[in-house]
Amino acid sequence: MTWGWVQIAIAVLYGVMVVATIGVIVAEKRDPTKSLAWIALVALVPVLGLGVYSLVGRNWRKRKMFSRKGILDEDYLEAVSRRQFSRLSGPTLEATPEIENNAGTIRLMLRNSRALLAMHNRVEVLQNGKATFASLFEALKGARRSIHLEYYIFENDRLGRRVAKILMNKAREGVEVRLIYDGVGTLWTEGWIFRKMRQAGVNVECFMPVAFPWLSSRLNYRNHRKIAVIDGEVAYTGGINVAERYLAGTRLGRWRDVHLKIEGEAVNLLQAVFITDWRFVRRKELLRAEDYFGESTVEEVCPMQIAVSGPDSDWSAIMQAFFSAITRARSRIYISTPYFTPDGALLTAMKVAALSGVDVRLLIPARSDSRLVYWATRSYVEELLEAGIKVYMYQAGFNHSKVVIIDGEFCSVGSANMDVRSFEDNFEVSALIYDRKLAGELEESFHRDLGNSRIVTLQEWSLRPWHASARESLARLLSPLL
Q: First vs last Cα of the chain: how many Å apart?
């Protein structure tokens, strides 16, 4: 066979691979925008497109690359969720006005992810890193039985080493200490800090380690959760990782974020999330829930669901919770997020709410730690303004908080950004809270953040340079691939 025929054979084989890949993309029946973006990349830049798609483009949610490993008896979970669903479908003595007004969202979460409703909780809003770590350090040092931590980022910096020292001391005292960190979130963290903790008796596991990021199909599916549970009595969750930047800031300035300290029935729900994830990373070790679930003595009523989503879920549960709450809004919707690249359904829900007379306000950063996502976020501003949504850009540093507040009675604080990656690809957790007092507190802090922001007007936005608009359009085109 001559060299010419070899070239023809290679070209034909390559063409077949491109067509077959496009066929697979179409067959996955995903969101058309995302599918078209992948098809365009594969068709226009075949070598790059095939390589990138094979690594990070496959829809493993449909293929069940991950399987949910429940830590409670399936029949028990099903029975409890059905009972709660039934109670919420009719009159119930437990119902507060907030529960009655959000019953549809609560029922949705019971069905799409069995997110049980915990009634009795005490919640403290922790503003920024200083308050969060002061409270967390106190809880860690007081631990008597168990410490369970799960973070996307655990830096080997001054703060990370301080946390590690506390964990090692508690392990030497006989406390069961477990830590899960993400393989990509800590990709540049020096590994000796984890080795040192293991030597001191801390059980440390990496969530899907990635030795060669450019050759791994796991790169796209990351554990973005931030969870701490101490003695099964107190828990923390929100948007703050273990990193000095949350105290000292970066070149972007001070990092603005929100975290929650939770006591009460919802602690067991966060404990269940950790134990499920621990089973995934330590496959041969099954922690018995009854050994780590605490008995709550909290009497305050603060209804809450712990929503989780990820490639192991049948539904994009957190996105559906936001969609449901937004479409039910009657007066106001406040959203704070560092990254805003929503899917079509959520974007439409926000615009319809604003056009219907609901006061919709979106707070995004004026500066970002991700240039591509920064420009993609800005690509949505014009259509949001045209729909009557008020857009604010945070000026006093980098806004990393992930907060949703609706009608002053529903609020969410968690790890999920308002973007497709959080809704589809990452393992995320959010506390959905149905309480006017807590929602009011978060509204006050949201308005303070608006005071450190500038509002964007449609007239001003229309005068921005053409090259800025071009960058935004290109970033938006690529955003489904992020």
A: 43
Does 277 participate in catalysis according to the annotation?
A: no
The answer on pLDDT for 217 being more than 60 is no
Q: Do 262 and 330 fall within a single domain?
A: no
Whether 314 is catalytic: no
Q: Say if 406 falls within a structural domain.
A: yes
The answer to whether residue 407 is catalytic is yes
400 is catalytic: yes
Which listed residue (226, 257, 259, 277) is catalytic? 226
Judge whether 402 counts as a catalytic residue: yes
Burial label for 93, CB within 10 Å (0-12, 13-18, 19+), is exposed
**Given 299, 332, 362, which residue is the final one in a domain?**
299
For the segment 375-405, what is each residue's pLDDT rounded down to a tens digit? 999 999 999 999 999 999 999 999 999 999 9
pTM score, two decimals? 0.86
Q: Is residue 100 a part of any domain in this protein? A: no
**Together in a domain, 293 and 342:** no
For the segment 32-48, the average pLDDT, to the nearest whole number, is 57
> Is residue 458 situated within a structural domain?
yes
Catalytic position from the list 224, 312, 435, 449: 224
| Catalytic residue from among 402, 419, 425, 449 | 402
Domain encompassing residue 7: 3-58
Confidence of residue 283 (pLDDT cuts 50, 70, 90): confident
Catalytic pick among 34, 148, 182, 231: 231
CA distance 364 to 79: 41
Active site residue 449: no
Number of structural domains found in the chain: 3
Identity of the highest mean pLDDT range in 1-10, 240-249, 304-313:
240-249
What single string gives the DSSP state of each residue in 451-482?
HTEEEE-HHHHHTS-HHHHHHHHHHHHHGGG-
